[in-house]
């Protein structure tokens, strides 16, 4: 592969040792990739993918692990005291979520970092807080409203602290009775947040993040304007992260496949403007990134249109291909 398809990884840090096909050790985990490293990989025909590298420093990865641990503490406190340790969330978790949200260009890298079925509920809570805050920024939410949105998203699933672990962590499909029990986490979260002294707007996100625009969601089957704007944002973040994550009962899907399903309405009816902004911005984060098309030819994303954000312009070895016009050509793989 031409080394220009590895160039987007310059400045990233390897997550594991890299070996040539014959077993020769090429680079060590933690190496910050420079142009010389990229040439070494190209000579040895090593293909890197996004999951093989991270934009985060070792110190930042420690901070992320601490945030997940802090969220675990919050869930455990909610179980024992039936109240949210609000000051703890505000002082320890919220700053980490806001800091990570400010690094929105590394969102996909963060999702790779938070992969793993262990402690999924806590990782999911952290990720949804970050993604919701990023979406809020993209939609023009600022100041105290952004802080309130981020706070609400960071505790949106706190009601799951009251769901039995045998249901929460069941590796197979839930029975109808078990799913009814799982759905209670929305009301339980709402009541717990109100009892903890948080405002109605924050508590509504816990109650409404599974509601959908067409009334097919739960717990109340609300529609459109009946759902709070913050809840609509968190609904998008919640589904996107869940579907791109490895869970005890389902493996992760590639982010592009998830975006496509959301765009087609196959994962629920989301607010159209929020979803459109989210998908376009996520795709724009990938401008300059390498892909392989379904004809096996590598290419690079060069432009994302507003009208067809999932069908970008691709530089295919010097030829500009508009995927919105070329119906037979699709993206097969993201590198």
UniProtKB/TrEMBL annotation:
HD-GYP domain residues: 99-294
Superkingdom: Bacteria
Name of the featured protein: HD domain-containing protein
Pfam families: HD_5
PROSITE patterns found in the cross-reference section: HD_GYP
PANTHER family: CYCLIC DI-GMP PHOSPHODIESTERASE PA4108, CYCLIC DI-GMP PHOSPHODIESTERASE PA4108-RELATED
Organism: Paenibacillus methanolicus
CDD domains cross-referenced by the UniProt entry: HDc
């Amino acid at each position: 592969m031409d080394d220009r398809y590895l160039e987007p990884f310059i400045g990233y840090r390897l997550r594991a040792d890299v070996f040539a096909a014959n077993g020769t050790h090429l680079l060590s985990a933690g190496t910050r990739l420079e142009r010389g490293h990229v040439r070494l990989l190209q000579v040895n025909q090593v293909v890197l993918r996004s999951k093989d590298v991270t934009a985060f420093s070792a110190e930042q990865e420690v901070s992320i692990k601490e945030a997940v641990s802090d969220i675990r503490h919050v869930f455990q406190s909610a179980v024992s005291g039936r109240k949210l340790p609000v000051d703890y969330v505000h002082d320890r978790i919220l700053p980490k979520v806001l800091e990570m949200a400010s690094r929105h260009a590394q969102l996909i890298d963060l999702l790779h970092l938070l992969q793993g079925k262990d402690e999924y509920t806590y990782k999911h809570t952290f990720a949804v807080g970050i993604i919701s805050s990023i979406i809020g920024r993209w939609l023009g939410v600022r100041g105290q409203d952004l802080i309130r949105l981020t706070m609400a998203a960071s505790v949106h699933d706190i009601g799951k602290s009251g769901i039995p672990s045998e249901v929460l962590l069941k590796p197979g499909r839930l029975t109808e009775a078990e799913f009814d029990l799982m759905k209670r986490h929305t009301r339980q979260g709402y009541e717990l947040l109100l009892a903890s002294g948080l405002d109605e707007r924050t508590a509504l996100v816990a109650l409404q993040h599974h509601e959908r625009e067409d009334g097919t969601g739960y717990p109340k089957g609300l529609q459109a304007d009946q759902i709070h704007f913050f809840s609509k944002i968190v609904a998008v973040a919640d589904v996107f992260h869940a579907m791109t994550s490895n869970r005890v009962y389902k493996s992760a899907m590639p982010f592009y496949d998830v975006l496509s399903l959301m765009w087609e309405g196959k994962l629920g009816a989301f607010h159209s403007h929020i979803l459109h902004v989210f998908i376009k911005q996520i795709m724009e984060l990938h401008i300059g990134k390498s892909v392989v098309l379904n004809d096996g030819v590598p290419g690079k994303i060069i432009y994302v249109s507003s009208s067809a954000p999932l069908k970008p312009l691709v530089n295919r070895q010097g030829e500009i291909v508009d995927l919105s016009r070329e119906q037979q050509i699709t993206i097969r793989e993201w590198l």
